[in-house]
């Protein structure tokens, strides 16, 4: 018996990617597809890549149109998803690709988002210790941000194994422009971004910083502080995260490698690459996979971890579908078997 | 009962793309994966995007390693595929992604390729009139070139309907760099191609010109001559073809539109877009779909047709798998349900 | 004695490029730099690449601020430039980078622009026959469109020499995204354009079609009709034009090559490349140069000409400065000695 | 009286960029232009962007061809430049764009380059404290590596002012592909690099690490250790460096900002941007300028500095020409007045 799903925010990048994955998911039937300013339009006119769904008409994003499905995906601006989620039936599985329900600390939420905290939901990154269990049977899931997904996958094994110092963690990530959304802004037009790289949200100002610290602190069992700098790269998709932390005295290459190996050896979507092979974002393009490599630099006593994901797939829609599968008791990889579109 | 397939040339772009599609094809089992200079390597080291096949080892490309499968895909340099194909059992379905068996005219072959003609095989572009029938049960299939795929899909409906003049056909195509293969050449390195466009093979010199003319002439029932100019665009994948022909006296927009509509209305992978919407290569990225739009320009009496495909998918590996499905009597779309990876 | 120049529209791409060139022009002093919505801003905040002018403040675009200079560059939306130009003193050299004064035929203007025609000014493409003379001492100059610049440079020698048929001219151009201006539109954002190509204005609908036909007809001495299709390429700058025309009976390669050679052998900025070398847009990036190559395709009786320019330099601001130099009796190449920024 | 200059390695990216700058330098005459495998070729065939020098013929790189000029630029593989330099007259100004003479520590050289150390020359980064003086009248100059240029410009002011801790410095840089040279390697072809980011030389393995540490240690007056990770970005040119260090107790935003301000306020080519404006590599494309911004992140006690340069200009050829100007007593900015080619 097929599961009915509704997707809101379907004219944006996150919503479009959710639809791309669900369209070939063997266990679901796509019900309402909703949008705001594009309501009434043919889906193919705003998401021309969704060939098999091209003739579907975008409905208005409303509780009425979304309710009545087994699963509702919210791909809405922060604030909007909490408002709608609060009105959906408790028995509906609601998966929020936005930020509203990720943070546990209401003060951190208010500091970075400037509004009242809407509460914390189970966090849809099943590869983190203990998270898969929390997602089973869940009716509300907060999909992680794309930067936190890559950062947490990069560093959690070391913190969970007690190998890393909680201070002086430095993360620099490069993201494709789709991370900034489908927004008509001059600084995002092709002429500006092609052939250029630039940072933004520097100095702890990016909203993903508290989310990264929350996840690493949970793994470490102590407070981890992070210097996080995101940069915009001239590509549509992909995040390459370079994460580095001081290792505890006496820890060396083998112990480090073993920790990452053990963390991911049974994971279908997160891969520690063979030694000597480094991640490239294109190798995960369009997929739910993450690829990771690490090196210990004894001259500075730090481990450097490189992780690559597709920000829209593993970093958003793929993680959302994977979490849905777990919550519903389905095979975790349903709808997520795509391999990388490379070159 | 699963069909066993072997893929040669698996370290190149065409071979890698065949594997990407076959890896999620529900009806096949991937047997030998072969290469030449990379034989012995882990597939994941040369095709890191093929996560589920990463631990497979590349075998040497040889008749011995390829024989014994139900289907053999040849993604080899021209000349090499004919030599191997000649030694494979008659009962094996051999699908040649190379050029060796596309042309019907031995003189055209010799002029453009400089070697003896290896014979002509059924042509794997099922959307052309009469071609799907020829593929059913076939044991040898020649996969079309990527430029001919886009050019023939663009113009065949008009010629088949008798609406276009056979002279003064002009086609200008822009291709992503993957069309030039995975070759270590200075003119192909990123620093040269990023931010630049350039033509090549101008003046009838490109080997795809006779293949395009062969297909259009067959549709027209008379000799069609084409001025074809390929250009290299700063992207990895995708072909955008702009094709224009003079319309016969008295022919107008409605008649033209009807011809294209009728040709493709029952096709799963070729789409005449709604009026006003124009093809973009990204909308078909990673898919077996082709999108087409046309406009009649009365002030010059010409129809201009725009067609976008992914050169590696519909233009190579997707067409190959689609043709395999037809030849074997499978559902034509098996393994080809991926939607476009966009943005 | 230095010539004072004012630049309007300085927050846009055309205006910024005019300033980039004028900043190193040894004969001019940059006076007012004006904008509309960005008036009051530091120039460096909107044009960060103009380091030496970064602390200049953008003034409001008005007749008052522009008058009183020896030269005024207008880089404004069509319609706006004609309104301002009409109020500037007759003795001021006004150079309009917009469309308002390019077309000679008021009916063509009204058809494509939908407003009253503002009159025709000397056309700033000095390499066309007779045009350099018309620019000497001129007080009003219309800068050609970027597509017409590349198209006219590509085909004029053949028409001027009487070698080409006036019908069935086909031009397909690929342009970088800066040709669409610095506009906050969703279809222009990096996520949409990176990795994609698409056509627009197909079927004679682009406003540059009548401008191209006007120029070619003047060269041919008879009415030339053109099928022109522009496409958007994933790069910031550059136009690659592929132009093809039927040659008159009896005309062959040598005669064609001689016509182009003779047309440009004394030009400093337009180069017929050595045989076998084809244009690449990056080779002219940031320069006022145009590079051209041609091939005769006897099997279809057509010449194919490839031309590459930088749409913002030779296609807009470089042509404007070159025309200014001629009008003022300066060395034609002043301020235009930059070589290509490649790779 | 014009200064005669010779340029070796002229078919590569560094050599081509040196020529681009020298071609518009008002004080020099370009003499021998030499190459190795391309000797005998027309310069325009390998560097088509150098329009005004296109007809020059590449000579063989040899002491004979290079000697007899006032200045010789060496843009050769490491090892090769030391061998040639040793044979050039002492009175010739030799400027080595390669690595051979950058490092002061022979053991560091041998560890990272595996050959005997050729000696240390004055280091061509005049904006570092005390360096401009050392370059005056110098006859041998080592041009810094591109990553060290951006890293040292980013962090030196803080170390020179005694504001930063010498441990836990972390630098992550993204470079355009031209930094890898004009080499026919499969991993550099456009199909691989377009749309992808990847790290390399991770874990202290990159040869630029000791060069960065050497410069920062000199500024700090104590040994500074650096975790440096370079990444490859999908663009031709540009380096964006994100550099972060712990600040000493009690140091805050104002003191930090003042240090950077004071260091660069009198520099023509290095700019601390106005607060709130962050570097973008395109804003320095084709120029000798560097743009810098910093932020203090009190929650981790670190300063994050972002610096953008063009790796081929300020990072190589521009620094070389600037150093030449200083050595010869010319105006430091001669030949370096180009503004950024943006968008």
From TrEMBL, chains A, B, C, D:
Substrates-to-products reaction catalysed: N-acetyl-L-glutamate 5-semialdehyde + phosphate + NADP(+) = N-acetyl-L-glutamyl 5-phosphate + NADPH + H(+)
State the organism named in the record: Arthrobacter horti
> Residues in the active site?
146
A GO term, aspect molecular function: N-acetyl-gamma-glutamyl-phosphate reductase activity
Reported function? Catalyzes the NADPH-dependent reduction of N-acetyl-5-glutamyl phosphate to yield N-acetyl-L-glutamate 5-semialdehyde.
Give the pathway annotation: Amino-acid biosynthesis; L-arginine biosynthesis; N(2)-acetyl-L-ornithine from L-glutamate: step 3/4
Q: Per its UniProt record, what PANTHER family does this chain match?
A: N-ACETYL-GAMMA-GLUTAMYL-PHOSPHATE REDUCTASE, CHLOROPLASTIC-RELATED, N-ACETYL-GAMMA-GLUTAMYL-PHOSPHATE REDUCTASE, CHLOROPLASTIC-RELATED-RELATED
What is the protein name for this chain?
A: N-acetyl-gamma-glutamyl-phosphate reductase
- Domain named Semialdehyde dehydrogenase NAD-binding: residues: 4-136
SMART domains with a match to the protein in the record = Semialdhyde_dh
Cite the EC number: 1.2.1.38
State its location(s): Cytoplasm
Signal peptide bounds? none
């Amino acid at each position: 018996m097929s599961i009915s799903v509704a997707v809101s925010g379907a004219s944006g990048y996150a919503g479009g990617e959710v639809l791309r994955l669900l369209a070939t998911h063997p266990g679901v039937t796509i019900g309402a597809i909703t949008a705001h300013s594009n309501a009434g339009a043919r889906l193919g006119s705003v998401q021309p890549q969704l060939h098999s769904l091209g003739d579907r008409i975008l409905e208005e994003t409303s509780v009425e149109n979304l309710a009545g499905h087994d699963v509702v995906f919210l791909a809405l601006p922060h604030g909007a998803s909490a408002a709608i989620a609060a009105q959906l039936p408790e028995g509906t599985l609601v998966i929020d690709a936005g930020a509203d329900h990720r943070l546990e600390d209401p003060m951190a939420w208010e500091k970075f988002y400037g509004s009242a905290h809407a509460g914390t939901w189970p966090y849809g990154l099943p590869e983190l210790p203990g998270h898969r269990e929390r997602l089973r049977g869940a009716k509300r899931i907060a999909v992680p941000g794309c930067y936190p997904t890559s950062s947490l996958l990069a560093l959690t094994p070391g913190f969970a194994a007690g190998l890393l110092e909680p201070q002086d963690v430095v993360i620099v990530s490069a993201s494709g422009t789709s991370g900034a959304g489908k927004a008509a802004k001059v600084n995002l037009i092709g002429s500006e971004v092609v052939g250029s790289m630039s940072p933004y949200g520097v100095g702890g100002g990016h909203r993903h910083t508290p989310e990264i610290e929350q996840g690493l602190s949970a793994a470490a069992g102590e407070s981890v502080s992070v210097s996080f700098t995101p940069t915009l790269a001239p590509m549509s998709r992909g995040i390459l995260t370079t994460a580095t932390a001081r290792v505890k005295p006496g820890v060396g290459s083998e112990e480090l490698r073993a920790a990452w190996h053990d963390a991911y050896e049974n994971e279908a979507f997160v891969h520690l690459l063979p030694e000597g092979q480094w991640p490239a974002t294109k190798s995960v393009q369009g997929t739910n996979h993450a690829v990771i490599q690490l090196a210990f630099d004894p001259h500075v006593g730090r481990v450097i971890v490189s992780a690559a994901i597709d920000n829209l797939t593993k970093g958003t829609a793929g993680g959302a579908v994977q979490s849905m599968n777990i919550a519903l008791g389905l095979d975790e990889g349903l709808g997520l078997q795509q391999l990388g579109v490379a070159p």
